[in-house]
Amino acid sequence: MRSGELQRKEILNLADGSRLGFADHLLVDLEKATVEGLVVCGRLRLWGLLGREEDITIPWEDIQVIGEDAILVKLPALPSPAEKRAKRRLFWREE
Hints:
The chain is of the alpha+beta class. The protein has helices at residues 3-7, 81-92; strands spanning 10-13, 19-22, 25-29, 34-40, 56-59, 63-66, 70-73. The radius of gyration is 16 Å and the shape is globular. 6% of the residues are buried.
């Protein structure tokens, strides 16, 4: 399988059923010539004016199945966008 074929497959998390996106980068160990994982770049916030969300790094060991249309991974449940916003509000709260 070529890296371009991996990038066209959607990544789904089996732990919580969330859609993580598509693989943007492969992590490769050049000395060992092995693939170490996949990176899903964070989504744009306000069309990129406010930057991006954090990237998601998926270790190769957490990939369960690479199918024809999707890649199934098992990662700990990631915080939802609402939970992330709540944390930001608490952090910036003025007293």
